Amino acid sequence: MRTQVGIVGAGPAGLMLSHLLHLHGIESVVLEGRGRAYVERRLRAGVLEQGSVDLLRRAGVGERLHREGLRHEGIELRFAGESYRVPMTELTGRSITVYGQQEVVKDLIAARLAAGGTILFDTEAVRLDDLDSDTPSIHFRRDGRAEELRCDFVAGCDGFHGVSRGAVPEGVLTTYERTYPFAWLGVLAAAAPAVEELIYANHDRGFALYSMRSPEISRLYLQVAPDEDLAAWPDERIWSELRTRLETVPGWSLNEGPILERSLTPMRSLVVEPMRWERLFLAGDAVHIVPPTGAKGMNLALADVALLGEAFAAWYGQGRTDLLDSYSATALRRVWRAQHFSWWMTSMLHRLDRDDPYETNLQIATLRYVATSRAYATSLAENYVGLPEV
């Protein structure tokens, strides 16, 4: 097989890049190890920054997002029996939209297939070769057969466990990493959200988050130990703990319902530099991971491929190499800003050490400062909704 850009991974990054290239008249083939049904079902992030919403709309895949997405103009912080709303739109003029990653993936798959794009599901990328030549290749297995895709460039959008990053020679990449001593127990519940905006709660027993996926479905999270056994968390224990951590405002209570899904998400920060080697360009979770507290994972992936799409368009359309050459440095400026914000939100809201009252009091002091300082609240808001440029 032959194409212009070979893309490994059919998550939001790989699919959006393929669609952006199509809009510029550039051919691509997307390889995805999982089946279409799995890719369209897997639960991931659910908050889109203003810039991500604008990108999807400009690309012509924002119709259902506009119709079904839940636009939010603020978030609520709960701590020490107090509650404070961060009025993001008032402070920044921008907003966020709650729209599940799986919905973004569905929209992009539909758009690519409607345009005649090639997405090879159930296709395992085995290795990348000749990345330092004019015709790099992706070797893959499909229907039990070994095949090869030759291309001009390879985009590795296949996540942390994919083959793309490992194709870079040893000694080229530098990894920066932090692992947090807790995880998130996440549940999807058939219960109408009792709030119109997300609640972030700092509690003596640990962090909790009240989010949603639709007017009928709630998405909720609890801070737990990183090695927590999900079997030890029956429905009633989950709801009891959520009530304890979230129902700290008099007269307010959450809505309960059947728990449809539950999962455990480890918390870590990771950056791998550079994001390019020869004709391989890495994007999304393949080179950076953030704790979900700041809602930055999917947004960073989309920002990466927005840069890549313009860079490939400049190369194919005008023979320019400057945008390809600057891709890594440009993307990493936003990545590190998002890393700092995600770390800050995580450190401010989670119990890092329940036996350290000094740390607890610092967190409460920080939260009160956000609640009383317009400048500090604006800083949180502009990072949360997404900085236009970094």
UniProtKB/TrEMBL annotation:
InterPro entries xref list: FAD-bd, FAD/NAD-bd_sf, RIFMO-like
Record has Heme as a keyword: no
Keyword Flavoprotein part of the UniProt annotation: yes
Domain annotation FAD-binding: ranges: 2-341
Xref: Pfam families: FAD_binding_3
Keywords of the record: FAD, Flavoprotein
Domain of life of the native organism: Bacteria
Entry protein name: 4-hydroxybenzoate 3-monooxygenase
Biological source species: Micromonospora tarensis
